[in-house]
Sequence to fold (455 residues):
Amino acid sequence: MEKQLKVSAIKDGTVLDHIPANQLFRVIDILGLNNSCNQITFGTNLESKLLGKKAIIKISDKYFEDADINRIALIAPQAKINIIHDFEVVEKRVISIPAKIKGIAKCMNPACITNHQPVETLFYTKTEGENFKLKCHYCEKVTEKTNLKIISNS
Amino acid sequence: MPKHLISIHDFSKEEILKTLQKAAEFEENYRQPLFTDKVIATIFFEPSTRTRLSFETASNRLGARVIGFSDSDNTSVKKGETLKDTIKMVSNYADLIIMRHPLEGSARYASEISDVPVINAGDGSNQHPTQTLLDLYSILKTQGTLENLNISVVGDLKYGRTVHSLIYAMSHFNPTFNFISPEELRLTDEYRDFMYDNNIKFTENQLLKENIENADIVYMTRVQRERFTDALEYEKVKNCYSLDISMLANCKENMKILHPLPRVNEIAQNVDNSKHAYYFEQAENGVYARMAIISNLLTAQ
Fold:
């Protein structure tokens, strides 16, 4: 039987694979893809041995800076990034949690200045194995992974 | 880039000691009008007695002119002006900004906007670094050293920012802490973990009377009614954390009682005349510590 891709191949661009299915739209949001003019195809709730249900995004003619791609580390740490040229994978990139995170996350401290005035959030990450904590640059309070809220770009 | 004073975490051990040394020099001779050409802004978005007055005293002793407000009610903040705009404007007027603001992290944010140095005079329950430095100065002055001291900390250990900053600042000097508080106001894990990680010796107790005999310093804080979820619980414990002259019979000769003030009933009036009472001198020390800080920042410019 002929093997068929659920989301059709792209000639040139970036493929983001192994995104947890329930994080697909957040990833789209964080990477600002909802404002992109590139051709984008995506699929979600696809079967995955690793994640159970996964999502995949293929973006034609778009290549990300490491700093941009690492922005999704908070919600899709296991995502795989493949760079495609002429239908071939020419490069695989891994995601790592950046030492600093600007924007994206919300500080969980209700009395923090970032929750009251137009101040972009900034956190220092502290990784402990699979887990991570975010320490607010402003109020110095720690936001745990379980309390993480993502700020929407739209 | 100007340097600022935002958080005690920005201070190394050497910087702390250097600042305290400078404070001692100002105490020796406080008539030093070094900055007669400078304007200092004290902007207080939240009321304060000691902090504002001692900052303004320190500024005046240094010869600087002081502008500012002590309440945001009569300012454009009421009209919806953002902190960013207020700071931008004030930093065009003054050579140094001293700010108190109810929101946590506001001082760090202000320092990123301002073109002139910013001193944090309290950002909500986060940081109040000049209080910490004057606490350390008081400890150094009364004990002759900061090293290897026994420090009993009493009262609200959960919310008291002076307590939290004291733990961080003293961690450079091998202290032994004895924390005394009602169960509901115990130190949070964050600070306990910090002490484990840094090999700082500490014990935790609920009884005040039995736990001050070994102390070199007894650091009192206010137990506030509004911190209790259960009003009955407050009534039960409120008097257990009041220091009375009768409790001081067996304490060490060199022991001094500190309190960031205002005091309500956690230290009985009959303690005031004891040789162990040091809280009013501590408040006076605030002027010298703040002169040191202001002069450091204005000189660095």
